[in-house]
Specification:
This is DUF1003 domain-containing protein. InterPro entries: DUF1003. The protein is mostly helical and about 170 residues long. Helix content is about 80%, strand content about 0%. The chain has a domain at about 25-120. The protein has helices at about 1-5, 25-40, 40-60, 75-135, 140-165. The longest helix is centred in the middle third of the chain and has 63 residues, at about 75-135.
Amino acid sequence: MPELLTHRRLDQPRPPSHLSVTFDREMFGRFSERIARFLGTGTFIFWMTVFVIAWIGLNLFAVGLQWDPYPFILLNLAFSTQASYAAPLILLAQNRQDDRDRISLEEDRARAEQTKADTDFLARELAALRLAIGEVATRDYLRGELDRLREELPGLQSEAEKRRTRTPE
C-alpha cells in the first residue's frame, strides 16, 4: 500500500474520472426550444385535452380497465411529472432566446455606433468642403471674370498695337 502512495503526488488534483457523461449542449438546447414551442401551441392543448378526457372516461366507465380509479392519482402524477420537466425546458429556451437577443442588441449597438461615426465623419468632410469652396473661385465668378476680360480685350488689343508702332525696332 505505501508503494501506491509514492507514485501519486498529493499536491496535484486527481485526474478526472472516466464516468463523466457528455452531451451536446446545442442539440439539447434546440430540443428544449422545440418542446417549449410545442407546449405553447393550441395543438398541444387539444391533444392534452383529448388524452385527459380519454383517461378519465376509461377509468370511470370501463370497469375492467380501471388502472387509475376516481381520485386519478396516476393522472395527477403524470401532470406533475410533465410540469416538472416542462418548466426547466421552457426556462432553458427563454435563456437561449435571451442570449440571442443580447447578441442581436450588441450587434445593433455596434452598427449604430459605426453609423454615427460615419455620419460624423461625413458631416466634418462636408463642412471642410464648404469651407474650401468658399476659398475657391466658383463657376459664376470665373464666368464674370471671363466676360469682363472679353469686354476689355478689344481695348487692350488696340493699346498693344499702339505700343508696337511707337517702339522703334
